[in-house]
From TrEMBL:
The keyword Cytoplasm does not apply. SUPFAM superfamilies: Cysteine proteinases (SSF54001). It is an enzyme of class 2 (transferase). Its EC number is 2.3.2.15. InterPro entries: Papain-like_cys_pep_sf, PCS-like, PCS_N, PCS_N_sf. Pfam families: Phytochelatin (PF05023). It comes from Aphanomyces euteiches. This is glutathione gamma-glutamylcysteinyltransferase. PROSITE patterns: PCS (PS51443). Signal peptide: none annotated.
Length: 211
């Protein structure tokens, strides 16, 4: 449960009934210590829901919520590597369990689930929340529900959560799923590779001159 503590530090309640996606992403960004690149208030650089307005307006999210694809796009806009997986028949229960275990074993990755509450006998339907832990002996997943005015953090059977993700999202006609979030280091890696290449070229040129 390595990811639990960073998430617990940032655990917050969505401020609007339709903000589960925004609030979940805010929790993840702050837990992963992503710099928003601009102040939140005064000199503090911190993510809050109203700052996530680059892909779709906050007003639009307030009206209709975030779709699965919009969540992924918004996460990438904030500098995260977002690996999305739809819970189709091609994705096995074992694959989901492996993803949960991998995420919970590190503080550098957060797994977000998009599922139907109806399958869990909860009120409402489509919902986003991050996973804060996994108990292997009982095969239970800790859902850190951002709608804390409705439900506190709770343990859910992993197979049941898997079925909840398989439910069809009426807005897209596709099953729901899960998203793995990490800080995207691809740009840094490219810069480092370019710098190394320049060093090699420079060194080679210097040697040629000496000869």
């Amino acid at each position: 449960m390595a990811i639990y503590f960073p998430l617990a530090e940032q655990f917050t309640t969505q401020t609007e009934p339709s903000f589960c996606g925004l609030t979940t992403l805010v929790m993840c960004l702050n837990a992963l210590r992503v710099d928003p690149g601009r102040p939140w208030k005064s000199a503090w650089r911190w993510y809050s829901e109203e700052m996530l307005d680059c892909c779709t307006s906050v007003a639009a999210v307030k009206e209709k919520g975030l779709s699965f694809n919009e969540f992924v796009a918004l996460a990438r806009c904030q500098g995260l590597a977002a690996l999305e997986t739809r819970a189709t028949t091609e994705i096995s229960l074992e694959a989901f369990r492996a993803a949960v275990c991998a995420s919970c074993a590190t503080s550098a990755e957060v797994l977000v689930v998009n599922y139907s509450r109806k399958t869990l006998d909860q009120t409402g339907d489509g919902h986003f929340s991050p996973i804060g832990g996994y108990h292997a002996e009982s095969d239970l997943v800790l859902v850190m529900d951002v709608a804390r005015f409705k439900y506190p953090p709770h343990w859910v059977s992993l197979p049941l959560l898997y079925r909840a993700m398989q439910q069809i999202d009426a807005s897209s006609g596709l099953p729901r799923g899960f998203i793995s979030l990490r800080i995207d280091t691809s740009a840094d890696d490219a810069i480092a590779a370019a710098s190394l290449s320049n060093i090699v070229i420079s060194t080679t040129s210097s040697r040629a001159t000496i000869r």
